Amino acid sequence: MITLKGTPPAEVEITPLENDPTCGALHTTPPTTHFYVVGKNGEFADVIVSLKDADGKDITGKSTGANAAPIVLDQKGCLYEPQILAAQTGQKVIVKNSDPCIHNVHSTSKAGNTEHNDVQISGGPDLTYTFDKPEMFMKFQCDVHPWMFAWVTLFDSPYFAVSGQDGKFVIKNVPPGKYTVVATHRKLGNQTQVIDVPDSGATANFTFEAK
């Protein structure tokens, strides 16, 4: 379980989206940023939770991404949905365009992953990408609509999850042993704890503080 203590910074209205004739018409309420997705009891979404070994070193070479189900990044209302995703190296990332307008899918990498810059028309075919290097928060953006961003984190193992709207996360099929659990929020950074995982599984909870 991930929780947020305190009051997060106020989200900001995306006025360029509102002022765009096509994109603005897709919203009935003013669209805002979603940097801090928090429930009424502090349930904290969009936190990346991953496992390292007991010494805090990355678990590498364990990717099952080539056989894993694809993850999907959609473009709806001239926003990326979801904005925070995680995938394995070699796992398909499918990008859809559910909007009545053209988009441009532009991925940029700081870890040496292949960059993409592809036009995607309304009703056009999905785009499919794979990436072969681990990376935290690889950025996707739309050059047609410069307020559109999403961040995809890539791991070289299947031992990760993203906390949901209820603040909960599950990492499945973890072999018994000692691990460092890392919880990472794009704005609030990392927290870690070392846990022993028996055959029956283990629980880890994190509390972030709003800044």
Short description:
The protein has 211 residues and is mainly beta.
Overview of the structural elements:
With 211 residues, the chain is mainly beta. It has one domain: Immunoglobulin-like, CATH 2.60.40.420. It has 2 helices and 15 strands. The chain has a 5-stranded mixed β-sheet, with no helix packed on it. The chain has a 4-stranded antiparallel β-sheet with strand order 12-2-13-14, with no helix packed on it. The protein has a 4-stranded mixed β-sheet with strand order 4-3-6-9, with no helix packed on it. Strand 13 and strand 14 form a beta hairpin. It is globular. The relative contact order is 0.25. The mean pLDDT is 97.
Structural class: mainly beta
Number of helical elements: 2
Radius of gyration: 18 Å
Q: State the domain count.
A: 1
Number of strands: 15
Per CATH, the class reads: Mainly Beta
Write down the overall geometry: globular
Name given to the CATH architecture: Sandwich
Output the strand order for the largest sheet: 5-11-10-7-8
CATH fold-level name: Immunoglobulin-like
What is the straight-line distance between the termini? 20 Å
CATH H-level homologous superfamily name: Cupredoxins -  blue copper proteins
Give helix % range: under 10%
Q: Give the H and E element order.
A: EHHEEEEEEEEEEEEEE
Let me know the largest β-sheet: 5 strands, mixed
Strand content: 35-45%
Query: Mean pLDDT, nearest integer?
Result: 97
> pLDDT below 50 for ≥5 consecutive residues: which ranges?
none
